[in-house]
Amino acid sequence: MTNALNTEGMSLQIVHRRRWGAWLLGAATLIVVSTMILAAVRAQIMDLEVFYRYLFDGQIMRGAFNAVVLGTLALIISAIIGLMLALMRVSGNPILASVSAVYVYFFRGTPMLIQLLFWFNAFPIMFPDLYISIPFTDVVLIDQRMTTVITPFIAALAGLSLAEGAYMSEIIRGGIMAVDDGQRSAARALGMTHNQVLRKIVIPQAGRIIIPASGNQYIMLLKSTSLASAIGYLELLRITTDIYSANFRVVELLAVSAFWYLLMTAFATALQTTLEKLFPQR
Amino acid sequence: MIFMTNTSEKPTLPAVIANAVSKYFGSLQVLKNVSFTVQPGEVVALLGPSGAGKSTMLRCINHLEKIDGGQVSVHGELIGYQRQGDRLMEMSDKRISEQRTTVGMVFQSFNLFRHMTVLENIITAPMMVHKREKAEAIAQAHALLQKVGLPDKASFYPSQLSGGQQQRVAIARALAMEPEVLLLDEPTSALDPELSHEVIGTIKTLADEGRTMLITTHEMAIARGFSDRVIFMVDGEVAEDVPAKQFFESPQHERSRQFLAQMEN
């Protein structure tokens, strides 16, 4: 009768079940990983000296800086585009909603690289001159060749922002729809106008909901700036490939750029974590 | 009770008039020519089985639901529409919002703004809509929290409060707009009996002050306890509209008798 209830008042020690299987699997994983690292070190896969030399190279750091500027500006612009598209989509007006849906379909449905190439190469062919004047007057604001206006930076920023705007609109729309309808009813019943409800109740609550997904998109964008290398913008990857095509230290230089992308990602992650702590889910 | 708050000489306009209100959800008619009148200072319990259209009727009074026929007016003012010739044109968002400030509403699920503290919940609308000074709004909020028995919860977030406390804050929030009519939509249905009790106490205080209230409820302590009148709805129609005492002592309708039998179980 070992399973009988202890009625003699003695205190028995409680031992929780140990998960030996998981620990065994963990040990096996550790062996595999360390074997791979050891093999890499033995094979001398890269020259660490060269790696360190280029890690804080002026050109490389300029490229990393350009990538952060491009990615961050694109995130801000895409958030604004995304908010407008999301509001159009939930407006209840069929025209606004369909325009928004078609935009999202197009910009989410074509590869970002194609969009970048389009803005840099195809757009100036379609519209060779940029001519903006104030209607009904002779005042000309801009009259230039499109190719001088669309620099690699402008094309990259436009391409990334417009494409990312489509993704952001879906994220923001999800956030708006996740706000309980009762919150809107309560605000309306208190006499707030449609815009006041949006500003004071819906956007703050939706904002909190979309932080994690937006952090994800920021990381994606920072890495997607490497696509701009295809149109000659001097961001990190372009500079890296330029250097290694001259000195053939491909492994070291790609490792250097990977390091900087990882650092950017760490920054974006930290930013996201800070925002989540600053605006806790209530 | 009925004319308690109106001692002046001028003839009193009814607080709420629903005149032949109808409402459709798609092809389903949820309100069928609903008519009733609520006098100032009256506490009216809107009873009926679920799906009878009680909540929808309540939401029509402050135009949270748009009506498809008839009229609703509060203190003589047509709600949500203005007459142009022989048509009723829906008003602008701004005008409707102004009208809503005269009608307070309390919801079954409290609907406190969850990203705001209790204090912010109460002061936001008075400051935004009534353009009240912040200090004044805060002073009023503290007085209201005192009144609903939660003087020390101003800096709490809704998620830190019990359901009963949240509902009392929601009542304070509605009162902060100084509405002429208070609509309470199943105010205790989301609460267990113990927490219901404190909310019922708060509502009773308001009734004793002579506030005009229209309450949908399944709670006997409200309907029988301190309502002046019962409007009993079935299938989107008013089946009975009688003094509360009469409804509970000698219900006229077969459905009323069934309903009361179930309620008392």
Automatic annotation (TrEMBL), chain A:
Membrane topology: Multi-pass membrane protein
Listed name of the protein: ABC transporter permease
Gene3D superfamilies named in the record: MetI-like (1.10.3720.10)
Subcellular location per the Swiss-Prot or TrEMBL entry: Cell inner membrane; Cell membrane
Source domain of life: Bacteria
Gene Ontology CC annotations of this record: ATP-binding cassette (ABC) transporter complex
The family this protein is said to belong to: Belongs to the binding-protein-dependent transport system permease family. HisMQ subfamily.
Gene source species: Thalassospira profundimaris
GO biological process: amino acid transport
Record key words, sorted: Amino-acid transport, Cell membrane, Membrane, Transmembrane, Transmembrane helix, Transport
Transmembrane domains' residue ranges: 20-43, 64-85, 146-167, 253-275
ABC transmembrane type-1 domain segment(s): 64-272
GO molecular function, one term: transmembrane transporter activity
